[in-house]
Structures are given as structure tokens and as C-alpha cells.
């Protein structure tokens, strides 16, 4: 993988993590609806939530970054590397959202990271 491809994949992963954080924070900040779940009121809230739109924006930018990465490297290399986004989301959930992450989840995150490293090393 060239340095530019590594940067593109890293930026794509960062945008994915930012998008997920924005979605979670945006939804958590929506006021609770009285009388149970009412779809129309919920969608009205969603369309007026700036953090949710930031998440959509992050995903839109990520789409174009990903296309650029795909134009420079094989999918069979890039897609496993993009799995590091899962690791980033677990870490961001812990650091930013204060979520509890079990040992089993940390172990799974480590396994994903090791798998990505194996794929990247094997492709050189």
C-alpha cells in the first residue's frame, strides 16, 4: 500500500468514526416523545438535528475518499483495512461516550486489528 492509499484509508476510517459518533450523540440528544413511538414526530426531530446532519456529511465525504482509495488499490486489500473502523468506534465509544467496553469486546477489537495487519503484511 502506498503512503497516499494509507492516508486515504485512515481518513475514511476517521470519517466513519466521526459519522457514527455524530449519529449516536445526535439521537441521544433528541427529546423523548410522549405517548410512545410516533414515526412522524420522530422524523421531524431527526430532520432538525444538526449532529445527525454532521454524521450524514461525514459519510458523504467518506464516500468520495473511499472512491479515491478504490481507484488506487485493490478492494481485497482496502476492505479488510477499513475494518479498523470497528476498532475506532469501540475506542471512541469508550473515550467520547463513556461506554463500558468488556474484556471480550476489547479482545475482539484486538483480533480485528491483528487480522487487518495480517492482510496488509501478506499483500506486500
UniProtKB/TrEMBL annotation:
- What is the first-listed, main subcellular location in coarse terms? membrane
Where exactly are the transmembrane stretches of this chain?
A: 43-65, 77-97, 103-122
Q: Which domain of life is it from?
A: Bacteria
* InterPro entries reported in the protein's UniProt record: EmrE-like, Small_drug/metabolite_transptr
Q: Where in the cell is it found?
A: Cell membrane
Q: How does it sit in the membrane?
A: Multi-pass membrane protein
Q: Identify the keywords attached in UniProt to this record, alphabetized.
A: Cell membrane, Membrane, Transmembrane, Transmembrane helix
The name this protein goes by in its record: Transporter
